[in-house]
Amino acid sequence: VKEFLMAELEPRDRYQLLTRSVGPRPIAFVSSLSKDGIGNLAPFSYFNVGGANPPSAIICPVKDRNANTKDTLNNIRDTGEYVINICTRSFAEKMSQTSFAYGPEIDEFDAAGLTRVPSVHVKPPRVGESPIHLEMKLFQLVEHGQGPLSSDYIIGEILSIHCDETVLTDGLPDNTKINHIGRLGESWYSSVDEQSLFELERPTKP
Ligand SMILES: Cc1cc2nc3c(=O)[nH]c(=O)nc-3n(C[C@H](O)[C@H](O)[C@H](O)COP(=O)(O)O)c2cc1C
Fold it and tell me: How far is the CA of 64 from the centre of ligand 1 (A)?
């Protein structure tokens, strides 16, 4: 067994270990607006949901190698609003294209050719290609560390979830219909389909 002591590694080597070890990670495709109203769209696989009372989710934009913050963090800090669009196989390539380091003046909806759908409770639009949208309000920003590859944890409250009828069965999202994708290390992704799904019931005895 090889042990990697975090204190002995450079941030970029820790990044390689983390992204190859922890996965598959769900992908939040986050749309936001700058304080001047310029649109922004970017994927974040440091993403998960937490409580249901209130319903909450966390995403984690990491500072770049020059310790600059990402547009998504700047926008959410300035406006307090965003949308998390759930990623599926059908628009994975366009999602990936939006992760190019476009300047804040470029709206990635246009750069990648994705469809804006107006939100109901927040100003940033939803991604029409995504079957599930979470409208989000900022709860708290938690900065952990400073400098290159340090993180800001964005904790948000989920105001509303929109689900396309095509992914519902008996009125609820159906995991055999959604075709989620997940992020792994290097350029690897995983895709949920009939072959990769399996079921396990919760234990009923010790
Ligand atoms: C699938 C995928 C997942 C990503 N996850 C993250 C992440 O969790 N945190 C992060 O800081 N960057 C992540 N990135 C890179 C950002 O999307 C990229 O830096 C993007 O340009 C940030 O955009 P923004 O400056 O408009 O916010 C990811 C990229 C891809 C393709």
Answer: 10
Within 6 A (CB) of ligand 1 lie 27, 40, 42-46, 60-62, 70-72, 96, 99, 101, 183
- d(Cα 164, Cα 138) in Å, to the nearest integer? 24
Residues 115-174 have pLDDT tens digits of 999 999 999 999 999 999 999 999 999 999 999 999 999 999 999 999 999 999 999 999
> How far apart, in whole angstroms, are the C-alpha atoms of residue 149 and residue 152?
10
What burial class does residue 16 get, using C-beta atoms within 10 Å of its C-beta: 0-12 exposed, 13-18 middle, 19+ buried?
A: middle
Task: Please state the atom number of ligand 1 nearest to the C-alpha of residue 189.
Answer: 1
The whole model's pTM is what? 0.98
Q: How far apart are CA 141 and CA 152, in angstroms?
A: 7
Q: Lay out the sheet containing 189-191: strands in order across.
A: 25-26, 181-183, 189-191
Give tens-digit pLDDT for 19-48. 999 999 999 999 999 999 999 999 999 999
Residue 98 CA to ligand 1 center (angstroms) comes to 8
Measured in Å, residue 159 CA sits from the centre of ligand 1 at: 23
- The helix/strand/coil state of 91 is helix
